[in-house]
Amino acid sequence: SKNRRIFRHKPKMNLCSIQESNDIPKEAIEYLVSPKETELEKHIHREDVEYLIEVFHDAKEYGSILDVKKIDFDALEKRIEEVRNSAPNDMFELRYREIILEKIPSLIQQAKIMSQKYDVVCTNPPYMGRRGMNPKLMKYLDNNFKDSKTDMFAVFMEKNDKYLKNNGLMGMINQHSWMFLSSYERLREKLISNRTIYNMVHLGAHAFEEVGGEVVQTTVFVTTNTNVPGYKTTYVRLVDFKSQFDKEEAFLLGENRYVIKKEGFQKIPGWPIAYWISKNMRRVFEKGIPLEKLAAPRQGLATGNNNKFLRLWHEVSNIQIGLSMESTEQFHNSGLKYAPYNKGGEFRKWYGNYEYIIKFDKENYNELSRVGNHLPSRQYYFKQSITWSLVSISYFGVRFSPAGSVFDVGGSSVFPPEDIIYYLTGLMCSKISTKLMNILNPTINFPVGDVKRIPVLVSNKYKPSIDGLVEKNIEISKTDWDSFETSWDFKKHPILAYKKEADTIEAAFTNWSNFAENQFNQLKANEEELNRIFIEIYGLQDELTPEVADEDITISKADRERDIKSFISYAVGCMFGRYSLDEEGLIFAGGDFDDKFRLRDGQWEIKTKEGWKKSRVNIVEHNVIPIADGDYFEDGILERFVDFVKVSFGEDTLEENLDYIAETLGRKANETSRQAIRRYFLKDFYKDHVRTYKKRPIYWLFDSGRQDGFKALIYMHRYDSSTVARVRTDYLHSLQKKYEAEVSHLDILIDSDISEREKAAARKKKETILKQIEECRLYDEVIAHMANQRIEIDLDDGVKVNYAKFQGVEIPQGKGRKPL
Length: 820
Hints:
By secondary structure, this protein is an alpha+beta fold. A 6-stranded mixed β-sheet has the order 1-2-4-3-5-6, with helices on one face. A 4-stranded antiparallel β-sheet has the order 8-15-12-13. A hairpin with a 7-residue loop joins β21 and β22. The longest helix is centred in the middle third of the chain and has 34 residues, at about 505-540.
């Protein structure tokens, strides 16, 4: 439309793909440096050629971030023409000539481009963090781009500035993390002090349709390499719009524009490009004391091999876990192996997320000091602290951590003096800190480098009230955390703990539900009161309100389905001896079972603080509980569970309680309560168990297959090398005989004088059992193979390693047939 003759001549693009000089031999360089030239010309020419070869060695590793100086390109190009027009004297010269004409012109072209200065540089740079870089590239960045080496997009911010003429303009779209993260603080200081941001459109996530556009947080901006004091930059904030179309519409309508002088950023620690904050918030940063001056924020350790050093606490023998230790020395002197480990976890405030333990005995401690990040900040191990999760898609929030834990990178911590720990916990759990962290680092990460810059305003007037509220919140959150068996401080299931005088599970659940509701409401009220106090201390009444949404309270209300299922899980734990109705807390999870339970005159006894006494629950003697789809075992899981309900709530209300449980689990119209509960054990109990224990189950399921021919549970902590054989001989073989007997009985029914409907039902039942018999026959081969191996397990290896020992068994199917 502008020039119809544009393509009559081939366009010459000032464009190149970076080439390397690695395979150019010295002999070719000698040939290029013509001996016919004067010595001076030869020296200058040789120096330029050797520089060209040197600067582009391994050039594909570095691309256009290489720093290339100007040389005598005209002389080089003239010499190339001479070589092109001359005839070689021998085969060697012919080869050198070919190399020179093939390689050198492209090196000259890219050197010309990369050594020039430009009026404008614009780019969408590569996004690549340190993990994606090879050692050569990392070393180059360490030496040449110290302030931006964390990611390639930031490196290009520095490099593009070097490409500019004075008063040149640089335009980029890249990730917005350079605006906030502490790792780019020096980069921001240089930009604010020595350059000027002309304008910016802060896009945030969801700016593009392409894959990843919903995740990558981007910003588009133009800068100049000239410092213009007092320049009023226009920023357009579109981060809160959820689609590219909403962002575009808001931009075109002129919404969310902020005009600010760059000098305002210098008042905030770390110089974040927080263009949207108010004057009041800037005053907070001017008046506040950085957190690091009141406490000691520290990044925790990285093991370098979590599979080796870390376990979920429930995997190992609990007698090897050292709780409530106050120093590394005390822990080592205890002779124990595992210490609690703050690893971060999901967003939760006040207390909790105690899931992991670390091998921290002297041997492993010494190894950890040589691997990973070499045990940083070890003087703070086992100290009382405030900890938080490094990554959170919700808000910033912290948890009080009493003495006794080691801490991880993902569970970084701050170590305040005793007299201010509750005050800081309250501040860091308040809306104030979320607001401040959104300024210091509005990403999903909360690294130590940003947390330490939180401005703290200490109010002696409000401190007693704050301390009291925080202490209560920690207590409420701990009670919630300890109400579930995934806590090592779990005492008793809440349906039993809050039973009071109730004789039905429904009434007991109502008591628990009322208690949990009151706790929830109290925590919410306390959080709102803390918000109100801190908003007043910080003078941000015009920007924040104290209200907290229910979904932002991080303790649980009662949930009928979840809590009934956890009640069933607790019952199974009591059957195995993990828990007991007669003693609170964890009873057996490793060690010598006979130290905790004994069978005397047919009656189980448990060792309590007061001595041996009768156990109200009949403990599984040989660590096997069969799960059958019929009344095949007197000691099956359904039968044991019915007894548990009878013992814990009485015989008079047994049927009512079973009905309540069955209705909660989803009883079908044609089922009795026992049938519904049996179906849950057959189909869903183990799925729920694996989910609850984060894919590291402590009860293991023997399962013959889809026909539900045979199922049985064992308790990992009571396993021994004879357990599999006992499963086979005492339960699988017994069930096979009962199946055969039932088939014989069904044959008699089918041949008897009964209705056709009853005969059809009998035939269908027989068909099902025959499938189960065949499934059990095949499974018997598997169990026999396992039993003969007498496999040993070591709880220290964790569930993943031990569980794998029983997987992938192949059954030979005869010559020419693939093993099953």
